UniProtKB/TrEMBL annotation:
It is found in: Endomembrane system. This is Solute carrier family 22 member 5-like protein. The keyword Glycoprotein applies. It comes from the Eukaryota. One of its GO terms (biological process) is monoatomic ion transport. Belongs to the major facilitator (TC 2.A.1) superfamily. Organic cation transporter (TC 2.A.1.19) family. PROSITE patterns: MFS, SUGAR_TRANSPORT_1. It comes from Labeo rohita (Indian major carp). The chain crosses the membrane at residues 17-41, 191-215, 227-251, 341-358, 370-392, 399-419.
């Protein structure tokens, strides 16, 4: 399999087969944009106050029964406390008005009769339906985290399943299962059931995302591979992300919104007959004839003539031998070189996910219209994908990734320095930080795919994505810290990201190198680079020594 790209070079780079497959796989990513962040609206917290269940009180006393409190330096009606309803009744019965008494002397009590929620923005959310406020407020970030817990499981399981059963089968099984889980979630009768189903939504969603990514990386031509992993997969995800707030704007009830989002998946059913299995994966399984059949069909669509013998005899023997070689997650940690690569990738993915998902989930906490804020957050990603696409075509991966991480984290650290009177500038810095995180997210995906060989690529990306879920699971709680100090989330995300920017310096460069097919090729590339770096370092020291001796 070492010369797969050379053996299939006769297909060309941008024939109809590759172009059609490019758009079909990208169309699937639009659904991940719909489904990835609907919790922003489904789990939004409407304006609320304690319910005052007494029809005998005047409107003046009803309004006065809610005390004011200071939040982030601004006074506002309390959302979790009210004045003792019994004391308010007695004062009202005695003929007093709120202006006649010192309200601060009245005992406070919790919202024992529940809450009243504003329906101005949201008609219904899980917060208003199950009272996930005040003492129960922690349940909202926990519910969000269950999606990323599902990501953790899906990242581990999907890699092994698709390496065993094939990319195509796992891709469409994940797509169907995700739609069914979201539809079932819309009928949840409790917060607990909602969380359980959300866990499975995350499991199937990340499986879909990773498997489609690997399938495109393996089947598409070299020229379209980078385009697919940047302007392709990520930009189409962003398209779904941008459309989501307008669907949520039209459908304000959370149950109806979920049913609409799950129903949109039906349009992907015909793609089963249009998207092929990965010929690279078939070769790795020893299924040479099936792999050749797909390549010949591609040649027919591209209107080129396939040679009588597509794969060399040595390649066929290697593919047959690989059929008996089964790889597991342990193989990603087999040698010191692979362990080093995996460990460094885990750190990168974790830091990037905390920042990216933290800022994405924070849109409803920003001032202004939540639907517009979500849309602007999505729009911010578009130039990031466009810029990263051109940079990935002509720039080494390591310095580009480090630069984006510093940009993303650096702007977040500056937010705390902005005065309250310049909130527009603070919002601009947050969007600039989102720009940096989005670019980092783009680069780290293709960088990781280029580091691992075909036989371990899905497993490698799956493991990295699994570790990244620690970051995304943590992200909702990082944002939740903003209830105590609104700058704390920015300080944590910015510091972690800037610190992680040096991690990828220790990874091998993959720019303008052929994708490794086997474990041995990956190790050889790394040993070769290490040898080159040692030689370069030795030469530098030698030159420095000569210059010093000349000075003496």
């Amino acid at each position: 399999m070492g010369n797969y790209d050379e053996d299939t070079a006769f297909l060309g780079q941008k024939g109809p087969f590759f172009v059609i497959l490019f758009f079909l796989l990208n169309a699937i990513y639009i659904s991940t944009g719909f489904h990835g962040l609907y919790i922003v609206f489904v789990g939004a917290s409407p304006s609320h106050r304690c319910r005052v269940a007494d029809g005998n009180l005047t409107e003046e006393w009803m309004k006065a029964s809610i005390p004011n409190e200071t939040v982030h330096g601004k006074p506002q009606p309390s959302q979790c406390w009210r004045y003792s309803l019994e004391a308010v009744r007695n004062l009202s019965a005695l003929g007093y008005s709120p202006l006649d008494v010192n309200l601060t002397d009245i005992t406070l009590e919790r919202c024992v009769d529940g809450w009243s929620y504003s329906t101005e923005i949201y008609h219904s959310t899980i917060v208003s339906e199950w009272d996930l406020v005040c003492d129960g407020e922690w349940r909202v970030p926990f519910a969000t985290s269950t999606l990323y817990m599902g990501y953790l499981l899906g990242s581990l399981v999907s890699g092994q399943l698709s390496d065993r059963f094939g990319r195509k089968k796992v891709l469409f099984a994940s797509l169907a299962a995700e739609a069914l889980a979201i539809f079932a979630q819309s009928f949840s009768d409790s917060w607990l059931l909602f969380c359980v189903l959300y866990f499975f939504v995350g499991t199937f969603q990340i499986s879909l995302y990773i498997t489609a990514f690997v399938l495109g990386s393996e089947v598409l031509s070299k020229s379209l591979r980078v385009l697919f992993t940047t302007l392709g997969a990520f930009l189409h995800y962003c398209i779904g992300y941008m459309v989501l707030p307008w669907i949520a704007f039209a459908v304000r009830d959370w149950r109806s919104l979920l049913r609409v989002l799950s129903g949109l998946t039906v349009v992907y059913v015909p793609l089963w007959w249009l998207i092929p299995e990965s010929p690279r994966w078939l070769l790795s399984q020893g299924r040479v004839l099936e792999s050749e059949a797909i390549v010949r069909e591609a040649a027919k669509k591209n209107k080129v003539t396939a040679p009588a013998l597509i794969f060399s005899q040595s390649e066929v023997k290697e593919a047959a031998a690989s059929q008996n070689s089964k790889y597991s997650a342990l193989d990603v940690l087999r040698t010191s070189d692979i362990r080093k690569t995996t460990f460094l990738c885990l750190l990168l993915w974790m830091a990037i996910n905390i920042g990216y998902f933290g800022l994405s989930l924070n849109t409803t906490n920003l001032s202004g219209d939540p639907f517009l804020n979500c849309f602007l957050s999505a729009v911010t990603e578009v130039p990031a994908y466009i810029v990263s696409t051109f940079l990935l075509k002509s720039c080494p991966r390591r310095p580009v990734l480090s630069a984006f991480l510093v940009i993303g984290g650096g702007f977040l650290l500056l937010v705390q320095l902005i005065p309250e009177s310049l909130q527009t500038l603070a919002l601009a810095l947050e969007m600039a930080g989102k720009f940096g995180f989005t670019m980092s997210f783009t680069v780290v995906y293709i960088y990781t795919a280029e580091l691992y060989p075909t036989v371990l690529r899905n497993l490698g990306i799956g493991m990295c994505s699994s570790a990244a879920r620690v970051g995304s699971i943590t992200a909702p709680y990082v944002i939740f810290l903003g209830t105590f100090n609104k700058y704390l989330p920015y300080i944590l995300m910015g510091s972690l990201t800037v610190a992680s920017s040096i991690t990828n310096v220790f990874l091998p460069e993959t720019f303008e190198k052929v994708l490794p097919e086997t474990l041995e090729q990956m190790q050889k590339c790394k040993r070769t680079e290490n040898l080159f770096l040692f030689h370069q370092h030795h030469t530098t020291l030698l030159s420095a020594g000569i210059r010093d001796s000349q000075k003496i």
